[in-house]
Amino acid sequence: MSANASPTGQQPTATYESAFLKACRREPVPHTPVWFMRQAGRSLPEYRKVREGIPMLESCMRPELVTEITLQPVRRHNVDAAIYFSDIVVPLKAIGIDLDIKPGVGPVVEHPIRTRADLAQLRDLTPEDVSYVTEAIGLLTRELGPTPLIGFAGAPFTLASYLVEGGPSRTYENAKAMMYGDPELWADLLDRLADITAAFLKVQIEAGASAVQLFDSWVGALAPADYRRSVMPASSKVFQAVSGYGVPRIHFGVGTGELLKLMGEAGADVVGVDWRVPLDEAARRVGPGKALQGNLDPTVLFATREAVEAKTREVLDAAADLEGHVFNLGHGVMPSTDPDALTRLVEYVHTHTAR
Fold it and tell me: What is the pTM for the complete model shown?
């Protein structure tokens, strides 16, 4: 049972009535809630200061450091939700996968998974493997009070892409070769990753996360038919595994305009939309019964204040008739973004949408 949930599945009033959770539930809100993917990170000088000299994966395993980094954008920007500071490969590292996050490159896997024998690397994830997550979320929820905390994990396809390719890829030729050429091995790989991902999300929810987001960062590389056949079952398994907790489930990917309906059907309550599809069109594609999240182009923040406000109004106008809307960027905050531009953006959205 989640620390946020009562036996009836209701959350305490402090977080349950927050604008963010109300928008996720498609209920009336006092203003459109705002948070940013990668809001805790390299765009903040205070983040760079506390992370100095500490490798990324090590920083994810220090509860007090995770707490401080997660809280930094809440203090600075007045966002409506915090997102737990971690990385999508943390659960893989926790079960013993030999990987590291190399600066300027990203996650690099020492022994890529290419054969059925390689699947032996993927054991089950237990709460004890990530006890630092439980500790950090306990610290965070006490500090955050009425501000919801979003937990997250990488989706099976994106994790599989890293594991099969051995690191970041532009073409995913090895992952796609397995998906097309050995569909049984591919299905077994994603099924194992679905179990690991679900276990990681359960730890976060049970520790106190008020919502969870599944990042399928690279799934936009797939055609809809391939997604439905070869990826959607695993993503659906993850969403189904955490459905009993009663927390909103968000699904986000990049370049997923052609997949939006399927990503909603996979089990999300909220579908994240990147900047390529206007929110009114995204709503038409997704269909009724889902809230949407997004979707200002992150590069807009490098323009003038007037331009940022004009593009923000376009997003808000496109979202005017949505059942529920959480304002976000269409991808993560870019490292060289001026933090003050983010603070002004939050204030503008709050003021412009005040009911």
Answer: 0.95
